[in-house]
Amino acid sequence: MTIGSVLVCLVAVAAVGNALASKPYYRDYLHKRANDRVERIKNLPATLSKPLHSKLNFELYAEPVNEEVGGVKDVVTDVLTKFFQYTGGDYWYRSDFWTLGDPCTWYGITCNSDKEVIKIDLHSNNLTSMVPSVLTNITTLVHLDLSHNSRIPYDIPTELWEMENLEYLDLSYCALGSELPTKIAASNLHTVILTGNRLTGLLPSWTSCRNLTHLLLDGNAFSGSISFQSYGFSKLETLTLSRNKLSGSFPEPPFGQMFPLQVLWLYENADLVGPIPSSWERFSALKDLEVEHAQGAIPTSVIMKWENISHLSITNGELTGPVPAEIFCNSTLRKLRYISFAVNSLDGALISDSSQSCCGMPEDMDIVDFSSNYLNGILPTCVTTGYVKEVYLHNNYFVGAFPYDADTSRMKNLRVLQVCDNTLSGSIPSYFVSADTTGLRQLGLCYNQFNNIDDQLKDFFTRIKDYATGCLLDHNPFNCPIPDFVPSYCSAACSNCNTGDRSYLCDECVTNSQCGWCGETNNCLEGEYNGPRDEYHCEHSKWVYGNPQQCF
Predict the structure, then answer these.
(1) Domain contains 302
(2) Which domain holds residue 22?
(3) Prediction pTM value
(4) Which of 106, 223, 300, 449 is a good FRET partner for 421, with 20 to 30 A between their CA atoms?
(5) Is 465 contained in some domain?
(6) Which of these, 461, 502, 505, lies nearest to 480 by C-alpha position?
(7) Residue 490 lies in a domain
(8) Where are the alpha helices (DSSP H) in 316-452?
(9) Which of 129-143, 319-333, 510-524 has the lowest mean pLDDT?
């Protein structure tokens, strides 16, 4: 998955319309989401638990043997030499000592104390041609990693699935094609990573793999439905099936069985839709969930069972109704570090008035993202000025001014505050001056109805010139003149007719040669008969031209 995979968010773009997708701040947001997913996919393998059942476990994860330990059997030397020849060894990035002397000293080869080859790790090494079946003659092999060698675009040899001692297999990003076998003899497999290939067909059941703990199949072209019922994966901790062509409803775990599942990724399967099953409450060990196209209400009772959840993302779907108070007012979710319900149809207040007092964010909360919903009411203090590092509430219907009872000491972690495309009004809050905002990298207030930049904010804007990469104040009816201390890259603009100049002088507004338009928020705008030049996030039908009787 590359940076070009920003296309993964096309579903979100379609949901919110071309107008939003054309705005630079929103394109940047999609780009960041795509990059974040790239990093998560790249870093996941390093976080996976190691095999516990292997008698070779210690040697397998020790540093490669570099000293002379004696020769291995001639047949293994011959196999590795052929492997070198078949995969273009002369063009590998690293081939230290290959074909010279003892194979236990060759780059990427690890031997155990019995001088048997147990590990081959040649990831990102420019291997070419197919994965040779000759490797299956190394019967002691436990760990095989040929990932990130995209010049071996062939099928996975059938013989590879017959290696009974193999526990770890990583062939991700090798452009491999074809389908996976329905049955395999490699019953000791603990980890299978096939991310980012061209594999097709139905998902395998592999009921013989009773030890399988990590199965990463994201970024392929698998089709059909998902069925936990047919799997023999009673030890499964990680299952990534995102970025495929899967369909049907979200899978139900076997009745009465608790799953040790910790990571479940199902996003970017356009035809995988439906409500989150109530049976998912049995995923009591779940730490990382990322799904799309969920329907119905937020499954509060299910989520409250996930005491270990740290990354919760249910986006790009049809979730409806209010945001449950338990999301922000329940000690069960104290391990939560990332929460996103972006691009759904949630409505009502993000946090009700009755829940404001109990609302709280962990001091190391990373991201809160409820963007592109139908949320309304005022901005909740505990979210916008809590301990959160990144807050995304853009493209909703929040109204009014920023909360002024903020505890600015809690803003020390704030890096991103994105509230563009709402109906917020009044002044940019002066408490930004006293807050520790040295970590702030993006302030997004565009496409609202803010009208004032107070002189008290001079020190704030002076500080952010040195470290903020994003300051978005455009499409707000600011009073003229814009203070000199506001950086030009913030794109703040004003009009002679903005709120504060002629907002209550309706006769003058609608008859003035410079202005002429009066809106429901008492703004006066420049424009001609066919419309104001900038409606500041208000509907055209709510603006009146040339008729004082229809104005405030």
Answers:
(1) no
(2) 1-47
(3) 0.86
(4) 300
(5) no
(6) 502
(7) no
(8) 381-384
(9) 510-524
